Inverse folding.
């Protein structure tokens, strides 16, 4: 899988499938592998582009402040480098914040947008949590860090599956591309500094806002705010929590594909 240099960093990316381009933007603590469980549903219909945000996975990790606008410009530059003019955009959590900035700064590149478990601006509880998540990596080991974060990501039902959480923690501990502590700090501060509340009305692309009913990290009220602010937005609430891309990938992919089909030209040969 290749890398391209954009805006002073090397971005690691992967392209699979054919059809209209669809780019997936991962969130905090996640690289492109986070989308693995929904890839089988998307690849038969779309040219799916995944990449690691600056600081994550196999992309460069400069030890300097990050911003959503900067990471959105990374996405735009990546698309230019691989010769793609316009895409459907999906962003999960922090990735949805990046997607909003992409739609605002580069509207000509965005065919449609799906904001999954995302937000325009955090409330006090959310901000306190994200600040803590940015500060913790230099104070605790990765195993304890995961134990602290995962209850905010997954539902009670998921926790009740024997061995599931232990398996995820073991995977994270042994993952060869774990992020550096300073990256998590810089990403957390980018999340805290991001606020599109007053600019949502400038987003003109068709938008699906998708959230889990049991999401306690980015609760339904955050998605309702996005839907009310974006003129062409529709809201879908599914069972599940912040991590429903892992808990129920088929259900999430089904809703995504139903939306994308409305904004994907039909092949005249079929």
């Amino acid at each position: 899988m290749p890398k391209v240099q954009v805006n002073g960093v090397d971005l690691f990316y992967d392209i699979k499938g054919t059809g209209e381009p669809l780019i997936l933007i991962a969130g905090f603590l996640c690289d492109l592998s986070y989308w693995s469980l929904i890839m089988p549903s998307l690849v038969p219909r779309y040219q799916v582009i995944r990449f690691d945000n600056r600081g994550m996975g196999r992309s460069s990790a400069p030890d300097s402040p990050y911003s959503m606008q900067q990471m959105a410009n990374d996405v735009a530059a990546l698309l230019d480098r691989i010769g793609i003019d316009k895409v459907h955009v999906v962003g999960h959590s922090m990735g949805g914040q990046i997607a909003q900035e992409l739609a605002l700064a580069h509207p000509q590149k965005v065919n449609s947008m799906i904001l999954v478990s995302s937000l325009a601006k955090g409330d006090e509880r959310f901000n306190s949590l994200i600040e803590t998540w940015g500060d913790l990596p230099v104070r605790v080991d990765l195993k304890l860090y995961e134990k602290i974060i995962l209850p905010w990501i997954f539902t009670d039902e998921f926790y009740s599956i024997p061995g599931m959480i232990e398996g995820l923690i073991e995977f994270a501990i042994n993952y060869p591309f774990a992020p550096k502590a300073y990256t998590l700090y810089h990403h957390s501060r980018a999340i805290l500094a991001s606020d599109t509340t007053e600019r949502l009305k400038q987003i003109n692309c068709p938008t699906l806002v998708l959230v889990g009913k049991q999401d306690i990290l980015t609760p339904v009220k955050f998605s309702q705010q996005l839907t009310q602010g974006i003129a062409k937005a529709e809201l879908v609430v599914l069972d599940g929590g912040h991590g429903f891309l892992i808990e129920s990938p088929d259900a999430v992919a089904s809703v995504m594909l139903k939306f994308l089909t409305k904004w994907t030209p039909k092949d005249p040969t079929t």
